[in-house]
Amino acid sequence: MNRSETRAMKALPGKTGFRILAYMSVAIGAVGVVLPLLPTTPFVILAAYFASKGSPEFARWLEEHPTFGPAIAQWQERRAIPVKAKILACAMMALSWSMLVWLGSTVFVLTVSGLFLLSVAGYLLTRPSC
Question: Is the pTM of this model over 0.85?
Answer without folding.
Answer: no
